[in-house]
Each structure stands twice: as structure tokens, then as C-alpha cells.
Amino acid sequence: MISHRDSNAQRIAALDERAEALKLKRGMGIADARAMHPSIDVVEADAEADRRLLEGLADWCDRYTPLVAIDGEDGLFLDITGCTHLFGGERAMQDEILTRFFQQGFDVRAGLASTPGAAWAAARFHGDRIIAGGEEEALLAPLPLSALRIAPETRASLESVGLRTAGAVMAAPRAPLARRFGATVLLRLDQALGRLDEAVSPRLPVAPLSVERHLAEPVMLTDDIERLVSRLAIALKADLERRGEGARALALLLFRVDGAVSRIAVGTSHPMREPQLIRKLFHERLTALEQNIDAGFGFDLVRLSVLSVAAFDMLQGDLAGEATDDDADIALFADRIRARLGEAAVLKPVVVESHLPERAVTTVPFAEAPQRRMPASDRAMPPMTIYPPERPVRLFRSPEPIEVPATEIPEGPPMNFRWRRALYRVARAEGPERIAAEWWRQLPGEEEAPTRDYYRIEDSEGRRYWLYRQGLYSSAAQAAPRWFMHGVFA
Known about the structure:
Shape: elongated
Number of strands: 19
Structural class: alpha+beta
Radius of gyration: 35 Å
Largest sheet: 6 strands, antiparallel
Strand order of the largest sheet: 14-19-18-17-16-15
């Protein structure tokens, strides 16, 4: 028997058949139950563990349909429309599901109907029944009000006026019911009878394309899984070519014979549909997760799904038949590194609209970086040569303060400086390059940031630095200028 705390009291949350035979009921206080039967075993409920178990069962049910939704704390909705013929019909499919759950140690009750409400009632009050279309009213009529999935307080109000079954509610006038008890009663009734549609919202997004392989003999080795990935990718390629698309994200689902499901996902920088390239990505991912994937007694179902797609641009090949995209190899290399080490393993610098050096560039994951586009040529415009300002090879994430004892002139470069406890003598200097603060970022009432004067400095040993003075000596209103090291050239 399972207990949970409700209104500062321990009550029965669930019980087995032996406890039901003792005439114990859900909601009864634990103290009353122990008074009746002192030898009963009571276990505290673990809601989080129950939720994880239910989600694991939902993942396993994905082998029958991608439309799987969680119903409350102990139920699942499966929309099997268009899937039953793959398992020999409705009865064969339901028998297989119940048998597999029983083999895993679960006592499961199932109901199959044309509406979610009728299927819910059949599972909860009959256990194993298939309701044909048009028989929903006959199913619901003798059942209690709880079969309509309405709130307990609404049920109590209906029972107080003598409406104790779903059939009594169906026979009552609709308008007085709606006025007195709300529209939810009629909504649930119409959904169960098929008068109104009720959608099953899947817990996971449905993949636009999927291929799978049922295995007579379960596989356990990584090499066998990779060969299956290659064969499934070949089947996917034909569908992607027909749609003119390429995969941007793929998922490999491994269904273990004992019910566990392993979900392995990879992403691509460019739309992809070549089977060998897809196999390389999953090879890296499987290698990284080899210690975490427990094959148990083997996988009997392997599914490869395309989670997201993008338009596939055909590339013109050269005379040797090879593609002329120079970025393809770099993208594949980055995708393989990301598959093995994670999304943050490969970052790409992206230009940001800011003239401050530390804000001018940011790094984003490789797959999220904008793709390089060749600008359209305009023959009317004469060619222009733009020389951007010289920047150091290494730019520090945060400028480091330095000590400048003297300068040639108040607003000129330093003669020497001390950085990281070492003294450097300046041999040559170029500048200044003045960079003002971004005034549009300044908040109302906030003090304006000082102006920066950048210098390219070469010391007596030939090392080159990029440093700047923050503030001006001639400004009496501001504090004394400070010097910072922002980068090194070599």
C-alpha cells in the first residue's frame, strides 16, 4: 500500500489487490487502515520517482506511435491512428502492449476507442476492452461520474441532486446542467461521445521523417548499431531528396528488449543527407556515450528520425565530380567534434555591431553561427579597397591595468610601462586611435564612460602590444587617466 500526505494527514494513495480485498480504499487515512489491519505494509509515495518511471514508459510506448501523452500521475494516452495495421490490427496491437508490460512486471489496464474519453473510461472501469465506433454511449451509461473525468467537487454536486451515473447526466436537460454545474460537464461528455474533437498532445515533438528496423535478434555491439544507422540513413536519403531538404538534427532511438530506451541526438551545421556522413556523426556520438549506454539484453528496435530539416542547396561539381564547397569539410569536422564533446566544444566568432573592441566580436556555437554568403556582384560599382584598423592577434577578454610612470607629452604614448610586475621600455609607438564610448548604451543619470586612446607599442626586444589610456589629462572634471593592456600582436 502506498501513502501520501494530504491536508496534514497520511492517506492511502494506491493499493494492491490484497489490500482491496481487505476493503481498504484510496483516500482512507493510514491511521484508520492500521486500526482495521495492524499488519499492513505502508510505503511512502515518491512522486518524482513515479514521474520518471511514467516518462520512461512513455518513451517505450513510442515504438507503437509517436503520439504519446502523459495522463495525470498514472496514465498514458496513445494515438494509434494509422498504426494498427503495422501490428496486425487493433486487438493484436493491444495484446502485444499488455503482454510486453506484463513481462516487464507491470499490471496495466488498457482501453481502445475512437475517442480519448471513451478509451480512458474503458481502461479504468473495464481493464481490457475495445470499443467500436458508436458504442461510446452504451459504454458510459452505467459507469459512475468519475468516468467523465470531471472535478471531484463537481461530481459531489451532481450526486447531491441524484445524478450518480454518466447515463443520468446524458438523460438530463443540457441547458440546466450548464447553468448550474458549468460547461465542463457537457464538454467532457461531448468529447467522450465524439461530438467534439479532443486532441492528444504528445510529450515530444513528432519527427517529420522516421525510419526504423525491427530486429529478430537483438543487437548489443556498437559496430552493429552503426551499420544499422547507415542502412536507415540510406532509406532517409530517398525521402529527403524527394522533399528537396536536408537534415539539420537527427535522433537515434534504441529500444531495449526490457523496456529501456536510449535517445541519442546529433546536429549538423549544414543540411545533410549523405548516409556515410550521418554514420560518421553517430560514430562520434556513440563513441562518446559508449560507457553510458547499457545494452542490457540487446536492442530489438532501432529508429532514426529527422528532428528538423532545411532546404538542401545543390552544389555545382568540378570536372572530377567533386563539390566546390570549401566550407563542407570544416563543417563536417566541427560537427564530428560537437557530436563527441558537446555543443560548446566548437565556437565560432561572430561580428557584432559595436566599435568597442571587447564587444565587437562574440562567440556562438558553430551550428548557430550565420552562414557565410557571397555578396552579389554589382558591375556598376567601382572596386573599393578598405583597410580596417589593425587589431592584435590576441585580444584579452578583460583589459589588464598597467602602470605608466611618464609620457613624452601629456596626451602621447608612454615611454615605459609596468605590466604583470615586469618593466617594459618603449622603442616605438603608433597612435593614438581614439574610440569613444557607446553613448546609446548609457542609462539616464549614468556617468559617461571615458574616452579611450589606443597605441600600438613595440618594446626594446621587439614585442608588440596594444594598450590604451582611459580618460584625458586635460579634463579637470574627470579622475586621472588610467592605462590598460588590451592585447598583444606577437
